[in-house]
Amino acid sequence: MSGMRARQSMTFSAFQRAALRALAALTMLLATSVRSNFVFDDDPFQPVTQDETVAVGGVVTLTCSVKENDNSSLQWSNTAQQTLYFGEKRALRDNRIQLVKSTGTELIISISDVQLSDDGEYTCSIFTMPVRTARATVTVLGVPGKPVITGFDDPVEEGGKVSLTCTSSGSKPPAKLHWYRDQEEIQGRPDVVESNTDEPTYTVTSELTLTVTRDDNNALIACAVDHPSIANGDKRTEQPLSVLFSPSVSIQPESDLPREGEKFFLQCVGNGNPEPTAFVWRRKDAELPPLAKVDGAFLRFESLNKSDNGVYECEADNGIGMGDIAHTLLVQEAGVKAADPTAMSTSSGVDHAVIGGVVAVIVFIMLCLLIVLGRYLIRHKGTYLTHEAKGSDDAPDADTAIINAEGGHSGVDDKKEYFI
């Protein structure tokens, strides 16, 4: 009986020990840190951080905050879990890392002159029970180098092909390359991305092949880098093209109205790359006039004559090709001047003004005469009396008036009648 009790006592002791072990394990589990990727919204002691992106050489600011604090200190640690700041106390001797702000609920630090080695996860901790942490990922962008264009060394003849290669190194993530002709974007081959050894950056290469024309001469072919670490257009390289092409030719006369007896010249102008240096002058269906002299690009006439009329041709050569053009020369007779439209217009205007003035004077004189004549007629209207009517006004009756009128014919004082 006593043996059975002893065995039961031993069994109960073993059970107690197992229970204690389970309790200890549970306690350790509860003491495990609460991670930021499993945040309790109703936990006022849970730190809050945010991810940051910065280019190499820039400054990044890390902020850690809590809603409440039970007098526990906040702490920032780097990617190697080295403590940077514990509250306002510096823990790591790195002058690039500075304290911005430290309170019971917030800890802010900054890292200047950021390097690629600073890329990674940073941890903010608050030493409550249990310890709570939050992580912030710092993404460091590798700044791409200025692009380099290769493949163009010598001028290319019109119709030939040009193959250019653009390369930019040091970007993280890989940059994108774009080709431009002057301000217009053109398509090159897809970018080729290669990892750089000993650092987490990339080298990007793009190729462009063009069939050139004379319009491409002096055109600017540019390669530009597109990357989040730089503003558009900050990294751009330009390569001018030089295209060789045969000349296009024109003839420019000294005057549009060449006259007999005058000096005169025709100039042959060639536009090519290179500029033409050899010129040949010909007269169609005839020899050049005796007084015409070839002076390189000029055909000079010492004294024009009607016999110089004709079609003259110029041929220019620049070593790449030749171009020619024809010009018809018509010599005007000496003393004969071409009508000047401006002078004709001016003369016509003067004639019209003179005619208008004369008409105005005539109209004015006629109006004056009409006015004078009208006034004269008005003044003499009703005052004309014939000789027969004289004396009738003083007669007492009609019979007497008739007798007086008849007697007037025999009077000595006969008067003549005047009509106006």
Automatic annotation (TrEMBL):
Q: Which residues form the Ig-like domain?
A: 47-139, 147-242, 247-332
The residue stretches assigned to a coiled coil in this entry are none
Q: Which PROSITE patterns match?
A: IG_LIKE
> What topology in the membrane does the UniProt record assign?
Single-pass type I membrane protein
The main location is membrane
Which positions carry the signal peptide feature in this UniProt record? 1-36
Q: What are the record's GO terms for cellular component?
A: presynaptic membrane
* Cross-referenced InterPro entries: CD80_C2-set, Ig-like_dom, Ig_sub, Ig_sub2, Ig_V-set, Neurexin-like
Query: Record's SMART domains?
Result: 4.1m (SM00294), IG (SM00409), IGc2 (SM00408)
Keyword list, A-Z? Disulfide bond, Immunoglobulin domain, Membrane, Repeat, Signal, Transmembrane, Transmembrane helix
- Where does this polypeptide localize? Membrane
Highest rank taxon of the organism: Eukaryota
- An example of a Pfam family matching this protein is V-set
Record family assignment: Belongs to the nectin family.
Protein's recorded name: Cell adhesion molecule 3 isoform X4
Query: What would be the name of the gene that encodes this protein?
Result: cadm3
